[in-house]
Amino acid sequence: MTAHLGVEPIGFVTGVSSNVLRVELHREAKGFTKVGPFGSQAVGAVNSYLTIPVGAHRVVSIVASVGIKPQRSSGDEAGATFSEGQYELEAVMAGRFEGDKFRSGLVAYPPIHAPVFAATQDEVRAIFVPRGASSLSIGEASAAAGQKVFVDANLLLGHHCAIVGSTGSGKSCTVMAILDSLIERSLPGAHIVILDINGEYAHAFAPESARGENARVTILGPAPRLNDGLYLPHWFMNNEEHVALFGAAERVQEPILQRAISDARVADALLHDDISSLRTVSETASIVERLAQEKNAQAPIRLQLESLREYLRPLATAGGHLAEVWMAIGVAAKAAADQCDFSNELWQATTATQKAALDALCSTIRDAVRDACSELGLGSGTVSVDFDAPVYYDLQRLCDFFLPQRIRMEQESDPKIGTYVATLQMRLNRLLADGRYDFMTRVPEHEDPLGSYLRLIFGEDPGCEGKRRDWPGPSERLPDPALEGPSVTIFDLSLVASDVLENVTSLLGRIVFEFAVRRNPRAEFPVLLVLEEAHRFVPARRGGDESRSTDVFERIAKEGRKFGVSLLLASQRPSELSETVVAQCGTVIAHRLTHEADQALLRHATALTSRALLDQLPGLAQQHALVTGVSTGVPVAVRVRDVERPPRSSDPDFIGEWGRPDGRERLRRAIDEVAGAWQAGIARDLTAGGDGASGADTDDAPQTGVP
């Protein structure tokens, strides 16, 4: 491509700063169009492109503003008219041509009086079509009709991308335009995971849509429940996530909770029967201790002791690790019964002698249970299971046995421990009693849980060799193994209770990231994480507030590139996003933004060459955006490509809906349907917690927090 051969300059440089040029246009160019051998070209229009020769290179600049500088003659006090003035413009320098190849950045600045040319169509095309790199088409340049705008796919994905804009400006369609560009490339190894807080994307990837036919689509949700909805096992959580979910205080509650969970993991991994028996014996001692303080207690206590001895007899004779423990407790129970002499059948209060014997029995049982736990590797100062290992444990048993057992151990050195941990126990009991959280707290043990979940995330059949066996997830809406397109896994989080949403998103993000970190060679299976309404997942830190979700996604933003984990963020309030995450986004696609705080954050997060152009943000039309960053050669104003079957994020038709003649009848039916499902969810919540029920159909219960 020969530079401007036979083409006249449109003006000359009158001022140069660090990244901005001032240009005075020749009078014949003031019509803002110029016809030459390359066709009709825009001259001096905002967002059009200029080139200025500097030695062997040509500097590329983007017009940021245009104006007329009035001229006055020395004898004319009234001044001149605008038609007699001089046309001027300011342009932001963004890169350079080395021969016919465009490169970002500057190596030299134009001198004063250097000629200025309107970029030719070939030059514009060279700017927007990356050479020697995989590229994605996202739309057309606003200032160059018909010129498609491409971005470097590897730079867009490898350095993260933020799509921001006010409600209704076209963010979701831009996300979909990028995903469509990926799906169109027929990439069978591509993996896209969408965290959808508004329930918009299942519609866009419906089976009958082109995307549904060309991608392996998995949809989890919106119902947060087992078998046919969203599920996420609680035992996948690491230490920090447990502490955040249960609200454990740092000084006392957190270490006790850690030890109790570690005990529960060891027990459920190896010792189901022994732990169940220890739990039963320990609960019996608590019942006896409580009955001893009540009126008319002799007969109930006698029945408890007889039942305990009957329960222990086969355990003591069957052998095993704890045979001697069961025998010792049985002997102590018989001795206490003989000493108490509960011979009469009347319901009488216990005597002082009987209370002393029962206290001694309960103390013996506690000591025996403690010694048995130590023998089994539980309850000791050192544990054999990593606190963070995703090993199954039963949350109900943690609440009923392991946490109380750990509290009793700690009370030997500090009697106030029970008081300190009481609020933690209340929160844990409340969590288990609420069916809305069963999709996390009541997931049953099943074969290869972590492996099946990772296969699900990456678009593979969660079963082993096609056999789902005891898998607890949904049987419908799983990927078609016959399809060869990219995998798209949608987590519809629209019905997840707001108080656990952060726990869910942080856990999902960490699972994906840790898989990538642990895989060697790294970055072998790249994955794109799409966060819709990202300010809900990655909130800015305000006044020392801690967010587990922010911690996870900030780490992904800073380190994910090395391991092949990319973020695609969409948010209507970038100022409410973590500044760390926004700063790590190598590409920013900005739609209309009217709030000054949002614009200010973008100015700090983008390169100097882009900041002058951000003044356009308040006036951008729908579906128009400014694209800046490493994936595009220069900042560019673009009309985003049209997408078919966009996410369900369009504006509601108020007048159309209000004007429907059957509106009142439809409203009455809708109220009956919603209220019935809503109240049914509440009723199930009241009974689901204590018996291990799955909490099915509780997804419509009110989304209030766990007290």
Strand and helix layout:
Blueprint: E1 11-16, E2 20-25, E3 33-36, E4 39-42, E5 49-54, E6 57-69, E7 86-98, E8 101-104, E9 115-118, H1 121-128, E10 135-141, E11 148-152, H2 153-158, E12 161-164, H3 171-183, E13 191-196, H4 201-204, H5 210-214, E14 216-220, H6 239-246, H7 253-270, H8 272-291, H9 298-317, H10 323-340, H11 352-375, H12 395-411, H13 417-433, H14 438-441, H15 449-457, E15 487-492, H16 498-518, E16 527-532, H17 548-563, E17 565-571, H18 579-583, E18 587-590, H19 596-605, H20 608-611, E19 624-629, E20 636-640, H21 654-658, H22 663-688
Parallel strand pairs: 12-17, 12-18, 13-15, 13-16, 14-15, 16-17
Antiparallel strand pairs: 1-2, 1-9, 2-7, 3-4, 5-6, 5-9, 6-7, 7-8, 10-11, 10-20, 18-19, 19-20
